[in-house]
Design a protein that fits this description.
The chain is built from nine helices and 20 strands. It is 26% helix and 25% strand. It has two domains: 6-129, NAD(P)-binding Rossmann-like Domain (Rossmann fold, 3-Layer(aba) Sandwich); 134-290 and 313-384, Dihydrodipicolinate Reductase, domain 2 (2-Layer Sandwich). The chain is globular. The longest helix has 14 residues, at 107-120. It has 387 residues and is α/β, with parallel strands linked by helices. This is Oxidoreductase. Residues 7-128 form the Gfo/Idh/MocA-like oxidoreductase N-terminal domain. It holds the Pfam family GFO_IDH_MocA_C3. Residues 138-267 form the GFO/IDH/MocA-like oxidoreductase domain.
Length: 387
């Protein structure tokens, strides 16, 4: 390791944390970081550590681990309700933070986190990896150049599938609250949160003050508290609608995407693939593939070379307004039994017709109820949200 190698502590190394372990190993191989510590309630075994990561110190005491390792960056991939306190623990010790999405389960907790890290003077990157895609600035440039005319709205579609075991992966999975504490682990706020955050970013409405109204329709086919089939329509300060429809009960799961509507065309962005399709009047379809800047690597570059952070807390304020609207909404309504069925060999529940509804919502910027879904809740009037 060179003298500029940055020591890292990872909090939460199982579940999605395994992805961070592999990513840290990749960056460690490049000589720019070193995994100095892992914070887990139960230490990882040797078999759970990717080869080549060495023997990082392990402890269940996050603060003590930061002290003993002298780490400069903490990667936090722990249950949603713990995000704010762990981020503030790191900030109080002058440790910079990569915080997994969603950054907090409520707007108040998000503000406490964002204000706290700002006051401490540490850098904080929020883990919306899709916003590291080079497609995002490229699409913004297409929009600015008028490639699809005047922007009329942004849609998002996420048709995924999750087995019933998914909701038993952790005590907080599929919960809205646990032991009196907000969790808000729903389709739009966690697994398909990228569709919401990316749609807002491409609408030029990433900050809290960019949102003026939010409508939600939250439903569930599974026996959980949170939503697994839901949609949201955000009205931006510029008057644009941003409608995102999501389900974890798809018939035929497919890659999620964001769709920018214009008066003379549209741009489709499959954000997991970094792939863009430009369709416009008087032109044939144009398809592009882009690279991606890793958010941890960007945070390291920020500390060593002064590179700008790609996903700051303030840049996720609009997303957190959506989380807050979902938190304050009535609990998700159970779908009638005739509206879903179980695929026994996959142990997952499917909502017939939901794939087409998700696509139609992104295409028309409509909510499920407006598309005539027989099980959908009547759309509530736009909820005004304060900034």
């Amino acid at each position: 390791m060179s003298s500029t190698t940055i020591d890292i502590v990872l909090a939460g190394a199982r579940g999605h944390g395994r992805w961070h372990l592999d990513n840290i190993r990749r960056l460690q191989d490049k000589g720019i970081v070193r995994l100095a510590g892992i914070c887990e309630l139960t230490p990882l075994t040797g078999g759970e550590l990717p080869e080549g990561l060495g023997t990082p110190e392990q402890s269940a005491d996050f603060g003590a681990l930061l002290d003993s390792t002298g780490a400069r960056i903490a990667v936090i991939c722990t249950p949603i309700p713990t995000h704010t306190d762990l981020a503030l623990t790191a900030a109080a010790k002058g440790v910079h933070v990569l915080l997994e999405k969603p950054p907090a389960p409520s707007y108040a907790e998000y503000r406490r986190m964002a204000d706290g890290v700002a006051a401490a003077g540490v850098a904080c990157q929020i883990g919306f990896q899709s916003l590291g895609s080079h497609a995002v600035p490229a699409i913004r440039e297409m929009i600015a150049e008028g490639a699809i005319g005047e922007i009329t709205g942004v849609g998002g579609a996420g048709a995924w599938a999750r087995a019933e075991e998914y909701y038993r992966r952790a005590p907080w999975a599929g919960r809205r609250r646990m032991n009196g504490v907000d969790v808000i682990d729903g389709a739009l706020t966690n697994p398909l949160a990228h569709a919401v955050a990316t749609g807002l970013a491409l609408a030029g409405a990433a900050r809290a003050e960019d949102v003026t109204g939010i409508e939600t329709e939250l439903l569930r086919a599974n026996d959980i508290e949170s939503d697994d089939t839901s949609c949201v329509r955000v009205t931006t300060a510029g008057g644009l609608p941003v409608t995102v429809a999501a389900t974890l009960c798809a018939e035929h799961p497919d890659d999620p995407y964001v769709l920018v509507h214009g008066s003379r065309g549209r741009i489709t962005f499959w954000y997991k693939q970094d792939r863009v399709l430009l369709q416009r009047a008087d032109h044939g379809p144009e398809e592009y593939e882009f690279g991606r800047t890793d958010l941890l690597e960007n945070l390291v570059d920020h500390l060593t070379d002064g590179a700008g952070l790609l996903v700051t807390p303030d840049g996720t304020g609009a997303f957190m307004k959506v989380v807050e609207a979902i938190r304050l909404a009535p609990d998700p309504a159970p779908l009638p039994e005739q509206a879903w069925h179980l695929i026994p060999e996959e142990n997952r529940r499917v909502v017939p017709g939901i794939d087409g509804l998700v696509t139609a919502a992104a295409d028309t910027l409509s909510l499920y109820s407006e598309l005539g879904a027989p099980w959908a809740l009547a759309a509530a009037p736009p909820k005004e949200v304060s900034t």
